[in-house]
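Holo prediction. Input below; ligand is uridine-5'-diphosphate.
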Amino acid sequence: MRHAGDWRVLVTGGAGFLGSHLCDRLVARGEDVLCVDNFYTGSKRNVAHLLGNPRFELLRHDVTFPLYVEVDRIFNFACPASPIHYQHDPVQTTKTSVHGAINMLGLAKRLRARILQASTSEVYGDPEIHPQPENYWGRVNPIGPRSCYDEGKRCAETLFFDYYRQHALEIKVVRIFNTYGPRMHPNDGRVVSNFIVQALKGEDIAIYGDGSQTRSFCYVDDLIDAVVLAMDSPADMIGPVNIGNPDEFTMLELAEKIVRLTGSKSRWVHQPLPQDDPRRRQPDISLARSALGWQPRVSLDDGLGETIAYFRHLLRS
Ligand code: NAD
Ligand code: UDP
Ligand code: UDP
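Structure of the complex:
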């Protein structure tokens, strides 16, 4: 009989930004972690410090193909998350979300393992309800450049709920809002890493559109707390549950903060707004507060401070 601290845990996408922090957390609390990744956007560097640890294993594998391993719990994080990466090979992005979910759900079904899906605020698309609660069905373009990601993730949620209803699988669905922190890829293309790298290099900061669009940024440590709480929550707490920091900022405010915190002389320039870029995004986290007893603790200034220190070190080396 196994119990918390003694699980064999599979983390797909475990060599990515969030996945590697999750592997750290699980190894630290004594779990036996199998990290599966095809290194599409992730890197061995993110988990290099874990490689000698007997509680950690790394397997190169693409989740669009079946996977036969023996585990007790599955965190399904495999999927490129940055718009430039998920739009680079959109067919593969949809396959990763949909075929990947089918394979991991099939694996969970054979093993009767609990499985958690890393879903996204993108299931709400460009929302007309603000902030977004879990019962909002979203406003998503099914045929645009973001659709491979948004619709792929929506279909994955559908599959999770169908395996729950049809096969009585123990599922958890968390909807992650914009998260940032150390180990974001410097060329990842997401706004926080782009702005910090540009500020540290003294380059122009490229604001897409007029910069009045908003996002709500969650620091990675807070996010991982919530993911672990969600996995450990009672069986009837299946979600979907929003996880994010409700503090909302415009991209102009973010650029100003990053220039101030880096002490950079960078100026900002405006570039065209990408198609279907959501205007506003802010999580309603009432459910996470009540059901998981969770709320974010790290302010944007503090989290940016940690992230800037990480990129400063990375760019120097
Ligand atoms: P990331 O790109 O750093 O990590 C994704 C990982 O999945 C990478 O290591 C990549 O190599 C791996 N991967 C991609 N396709 C794969 C495949 N077919 N088979 C095996 N591995 C594959 O991105 P991230 O920010 O760490 O995101 C992790 C998960 O969290 C994703 O599912 C993403 O959709 C979700 N998410 C992230 C955010 C965020 O703000 N970071 C927000 C919402 C949802
Ligand atoms: N699968 C897997 N590992 C397993 C069991 C299943 O990768 O240990 C994959 C396999 O590709 C299968 C998919 O999960 O097609 C869905 O499995 P399920 O049992 O739901 O359906 P099946 O297609 O086997 O009828
Ligand atoms: N953005 C920007 N400059 C950049 C990268 C992104 O102004 O270098 C904007 C982008 O248009 C969007 C917001 O920042 O409005 C967040 O973009 P990101 O790609 O980080 O995440 P997502 O759009 O998926 O929330």
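DSSP finds nine helices and 13 strands in the chain. That is the main takeaway for now.
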